[in-house]
Write a structure and sequence with these properties.
- 79% of the residues lie in helices and 0% in strands.
- It has one domain: ABC transporter involved in vitamin B12 uptake, BtuC.
- The two termini are 34 Å apart.
- Helix 2 (12-37) crosses helix 3 (41-50), helix 3 (41-50) runs parallel beside helix 6 (95-115) and helix 4 runs parallel beside helix 6.
- With 282 residues, it is mainly alpha-helical.
C-alpha cells in the first residue's frame, strides 16, 4: 500500500505539484475558516472571477509570466472587492448585489481579453494545470503561503474580534476597516497564487471545502483551522494519487477529494453531523 501511494511521486513534476499544493493547503484553509466565520463564503467565489481580467492583462503585457499575471490578478481582485464596498456605501444598496455585478462584468471582461489574444489558452487559465507547475510558479506559491501565514499571525487577534463583534471594534476605534482590508488582500493573494495549479475557477477549492468540513470536527476556531489544514493536505495528496492512477485532471481531482472529505464530515462529523440527527441518543 505504501508503494502504491508513493509511486506517483517518483516523478519530478508530481513532487513539484505536491509541494505547491501543500503550500496552498497550509495557507488557504485558515482564510476559508475566517470567511465562513464572517459569513463571507461566497466572497471567495466572487474574487476568483474578479482576478481574471488582471491575469489576462498581465498575460497580454508580459506573456505567460507567472509574476506578471499574479500582480495583475492581485490588483484586479482588490479593485473588485473595494469597488463593491464603495458602491454599496455610496448607493445604500447591499454589498452582495454590488459584488455580483462586479464579478460578472470582471469575468466577462477577462474572457473577452483572453479570447482576443492568440497563444493564450483560456482553458488553462480557467482550470489550471497542476502537473505543469514550474519553478517560478512553485516559488510564487511558497512565497504567497509564507506572506499569508506571517501576516495572519500578526492580525489574528484583532481579526477574530472584528469577525465576532465588529460593532465593539468600531465603537472603540479598533480600525476594523484596516483588518478587513488586510484580510481581503490575503484572500486575493491565495486565490491568485492558486490559479496556476487549479485555475481561476477552482482556486478556492482548497480554501473553502476544507474550511466547511472543519466546522463538523471542532467547536473552537483554532481547532477548525487545524482540521481544515489537515483536510486540505490530505486532499492534495489523495487528489494527486487519484489523478495518477485514474487518468483524470489533477486540479478537479484534488477539489473532488476535498469535496469527498466534506461529505464524510457532513455525514459523520461529531459536531452537527447528520448521523446525530438520525440517532438522537448519540
Amino acid at each position: 500500500m505504501l508503494d502504491v501511494l508513493l509511486e506517483p511521486f517518483a516523478l519530478g513534476f508530481m513532487r513539484r505539484a505536491l509541494a505547491g499544493c501543500l503550500a496552498l493547503s497550509v495557507a488557504a484553509p485558515p482564510l476559508g475558516v475566517f470567511l465562513v466565520l464572517r459569513r463571507m463564503s461566497l466572497m471567495s467565489d466572487v474574487l476568483q472571477h474578479g482576478v481574471l481580467p488582471g491575469i489576462a492583462v498581465g498575460a497580454i503585457v508580459a506573456g505567460l509570466s507567472v509574476w506578471a499575471m499574479g500582480l495583475g490578478g492581485i490588483v484586479a481582485g482588490l479593485t473588485v472587492a473595494m469597488m463593491a464596498g464603495w458602491l454599496a456605501r455610496r448607493t445604500g444598496g447591499k454589498e452582495d448585489s454590488q459584488l455580483a455585478g462586479m464579478y460578472l462584468v470582471a469575468l466577462a471582461a477577462g474572457v473577452a481579453l483572453i479570447s482576443m489574444q492568440h497563444g493564450i489558452d483560456l482553458t488553462h487559465l480557467l482550470f489550471g494545470n497542476v502537473l505543469a507547475v514550474d519553478d517560478p510558479a512553485l516559488v510564487g506559491m511558497a512565497a504567497a503561503a509564507t506572506v499569508t501565514l506571517l501576516v495572519l499571525s500578526v492580525i489574528w487577534r484583532p481579526l477574530v474580534l472584528e469577525s465576532l463583534d465588529p460593532g465593539f471594534v468600531a465603537a472603540t476605534g479598533g480600525r476594523g476597516g484596516l483588518w478587513h482590508l488586510l484580510f481581503l488582500t490575503l484572500v486575493v493573494l491565495c486565490v491568485v497564487s492558486g490559479f496556476v495549479a487549479l485555475g481561476t475557477l477552482m482556486a478556492v477549492g482548497l480554501m473553502m471545502l476544507p474550511a466547511i468540513a472543519a466546522r463538523h470536527w471542532s467547536d473552537s476556531l483554532a481547532g477548525q483551522v487545524r482540521a481544515a489544514v489537515l483536510v486540505a493536505c490530505l486532499s492534495s495528496f489523495g487528489g494527486l494519487v487519484a489523478s495518477y492512477y485514474f487518468n483524470i485532471p489533477a486540479g478537479p481531482s484534488i477539489v473532488l477529494t476535498a469535496g469527498a472529505f466534506w461529505i464524510v464530515s457532513l455525514l459523520l462529523g461529531p459536531r452537527a453531523g447528520l448521523w446525530r440527527q438520525a440517532i438522537p441518543s448519540a
